[in-house]
Specification:
Length: 136
């Protein structure tokens, strides 16, 4: 695409004063870089991704409040992690982290393990044990 045709559509990135570097062809036909505030297809994809994340967080919060899962699953979603990423940060097998999602197992976790989760999520142990911290 030509440098003057680089899209400058309104997007979530533009509202944060973020610009993306893209490659374009200048007047001489040579590749150069240009800054773009975004373009509609990317905005749609980003909006859909953000909406899906918000839905996953809300679902996890509901499951915690219904005692179907532990706050670990909720904070994992809030921090945009998945099971393999969280397990990696914790230095545990995935099956062990998933086991910690069970409320009965979560209640029996040692202070050391709780502190490790709290450190991963950058919260206190008290916040880890609760989801009423305004992050949802």
């Amino acid at each position: 695409m030509k440098k003057e045709d680089v899209p400058q559509d309104e997007s979530n990135l533009a509202s944060a004063n973020f610009r993306e570097m893209v490659y374009a062809v200048d007047e001489d036909g040579k590749y150069t870089t240009s800054l773009s505030t975004g373009w509609d297809p990317k905005k749609i994809a980003l909006d859909n991704a953000i909406k899906e994340i918000e839905e996953r967080v809300a679902h996890a919060k509901s499951r915690v409040l219904n005692h179907e899962t532990s706050p670990i699953e909720y904070y994992m979603e809030v921090h945009k992690m998945d099971l393999p990423v969280l397990a990696s940060y914790m230095g545990l097998w995935q099956w062990r982290v998933k086991r910690h999602f069970k409320p009965s197992v979560f209640k029996k976790l040692s202070q050391k393990t709780l502190q490790k989760y709290a450190d991963v999520f950058d919260i206190s142990i008290e916040q880890l044990k609760s989801i009423d911290d305004g992050k949802s």
